[in-house]
Amino acid sequence: MLAVTMKILALCFVFLVTSCKCESWDFSVAPAPQIETPSEETAPSPAPEAPSPAPEAPSPVPEGWFDVTKYGAIGDGVKDCSSAFLAAWKAACNHGGESTFFIPEGTFLVGHIIFEGPCYNEGSPLVLLNGTLHAPSSPEAFHDDEWIKFQDLRELHVVGGTGTSLLDGQGQEARKHSTKKRPVSLKLLDVVSGSIRNINLLNSKFFNMNLQKCQNITVLGVNITAPSDSPNTDGIHLSQSTNMNITSSIIGVGDDCISIGPGNTDIFISNITCGPGHGISVGSLGKYSNEEDVVGIRVRNCTINGTTNGVRIKSWRGSPVSNALNMTFEDILMINVSNPIIIDQEYCPHKDCSSLKPSKVKLNNVGYRNIWGTSNTKAAVTLVCSSSTPCENVHLTDINFNYTIQEHKFKDSKYKSDDQNPHIPCLSVKGALNGLQISNFQV
């Protein structure tokens, strides 16, 4: 039995050996099973890649925006940009809707320019000044009475922006040549309704600003500067204009801070800081024949500092007949002013005026109220009226001045700037005056 069993086991071993191939065993790890890729119909869409940022697009130009640099102006202070300015103005003026004539930051050299209307729909482009305009310095460059003129326009607004907002007349060279034509820096002629706001005028060759035959114009927040010794550099001159408002501005020049010529009606001046200069003047009047009357002038809440006059009315000797009526000056502080209150109807800056006849300009209903400060002259109030055409109804109310004397102006050593008992300035009256009323007068 045991022999049979051993025989069977031997046979089984032989069978196993003969049925196997003599190959080496592979003990490596089997590769991961391949997953069948789904068909396009069943496969999910791959996640989209994040888009790359688009380049920044330039800001769109607003409708009706006319930038002078798009018409060839270059703000380098060298190239004459007059033609480019006029091309941009023409396009803005003719635009069929609201428009803006834009002067960006930079320094632009421009010669004599007239921005003329009428424009589309009887309006005007908004003039937005950010940069600086330079006038040619040579007096030979001008054959006209103005540098920049706006004419025959309605609803004109000239506005300073975020930059220098400056008109530089470069008047040093021109003022050396008194015989040469010297232009006004900025002139408005026949402009009805509008404003000039937040701009600066510097170093004009002649008047800084001239408003002629205008109506309903507001001048606000302007700063006007010229050397104290520069002749005829009036800050703002008005003539033949109606309903004008000049306010909240600083003016220091070589002549009148504001001068009000013939033919003006309803002029309101307020919150002006004036000095240096010749003060605020009505006139001169009567230089020419057939001058129109001056009616309705009100000057209030101003500060006048270091000027040769304060508030002045002046007419020429030998002047023809005209009138200046209903004028009020009130709430005015004077600081070291010569001739703080003056009526001068013998105005004649020429050397010999003795042969001229008295003025025939009639002054009527003139009021001075609440005016105080310090005077550099003993006669703080001087009323020189015409001997042939008396002043009528002049009222002085709440006038109070102290007299200050600057030592270097006098040879007499007893005059001290810190004198404990300063000389009291007085009222000086000359000529004919009817209806003078004085109340609370301390000078």
UniProtKB/TrEMBL annotation:
- Cell division: is it a keyword of this entry? no
Q: Which domain of life is it from?
A: Eukaryota
Q: Its GO biological process terms?
A: carbohydrate metabolic process; cell wall organization
Instruction: Give residue spans, biased composition: Pro residues.
Output: 45-59
Q: Which PROSITE patterns match?
A: POLYGALACTURONASE, PROKAR_LIPOPROTEIN
Q: Where are the annotated segments for Disordered?
A: 34-59
UniProt subcellular location: Secreted, Cell wall
Q: Does the keyword Ribosomal protein apply?
A: no
Similarity remark: Belongs to the glycosyl hydrolase 28 family.
The protein's name is Glycoside hydrolase, family 28
User: Highest lineage ranks of the organism?
Assistant: Eukaryota, Viridiplantae, Streptophyta, Embryophyta, Tracheophyta
